[in-house]
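Escalated from tier 1: adenosine-5'-triphosphate holo job.
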Amino acid sequence: MLIIENLSKTFNPGSINEKLALDNITLSLQPGEFLSIIGGNGAGKSTLLNCISGVYPMDQGRIILDSMDISYHPEYQRSCYIGRVFQDPMLGTAFDMTIEENLAIAYARGKPRGLKPGIRKSEAKLFREHLARLELGLEDRMKQKVGLLSGGQRQALTLLMATIVKPKLLLLDEHTAALDPAIAQRVLQLTREIVSRYHLTTIMVTHNMKAALEYGNRTIMMHEGRIILDLQEAEREEITVEKLVQLFGLKSGAELDNDRLLLI
Ligand SMILES: Nc1ncnc2c1ncn2[C@@H]1O[C@H](COP(=O)(O)OP(=O)(O)OP(=O)(O)O)[C@@H](O)[C@H]1O
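Tier 2 regenerated the structure:
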């Protein structure tokens, strides 16, 4: 489904600030696989998502998505088949537009533009059904502006917008990091429900080691632009956060420098 081959990315090459952010990454995901990524500060997690979604061009490598070589597709083109949710609840939604207008924009993704303005009755009904599944009462607030929503409500809506047209790949970049723990938990549960309902191939970067092991079916750990650990199936089921911290030390030869990871 997703194949990444020998992906490398260096920022500011040839300058004093040269930084090898991704060092020959090779990774493949099966359809419906839900991968969590953890790693210390500057490990290359966000850069990996940015290269996959076309925000940064890569220096070397290939990205194949659903048998299509997207390595040189521009970001706007990839956004038709890659859904993304960011850490900041302010990103991903238009705050001065209503909930249903935001959903209508997301629903039009990848479809030819029609001339008909407004939202059809059938679309409003569909949006209501999707919103009701979030169990946040948003289905009764469809005409309200998104700016009135809390951070958690916004992230749930962004998640819905990223998936209302089934993406070939869903990228979640620490999408619960800015939320209160209880709300973060709810958004993670929603993530799990949506990913499993639509059988979405998903990559979730998280700073929460517990969540990384609890959600999805595979976990990788990155360090200095490389994948140093890849846990799947039975091996992953047996692992604890403490063991993961130990493994990090063993595989990287370094102390885990991300305080946020250790806090969990
Ligand atoms: N636009 C950029 N220009 C220059 N250097 C960058 C840029 N983006 C990232 N880097 C550098 O690349 C390295 C990898 O950064 P990246 O943001 O991918 O790490 P991360 O694993 O997401 O870290 P964190 O958990 O701290 O967010 C870091 O050393 C970072 O400073």
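The beta strands are 2-11, 19-29, 34-39, 60-65, 68-69, 82-85, 169-173, 202-205, 218-223, 226-232.
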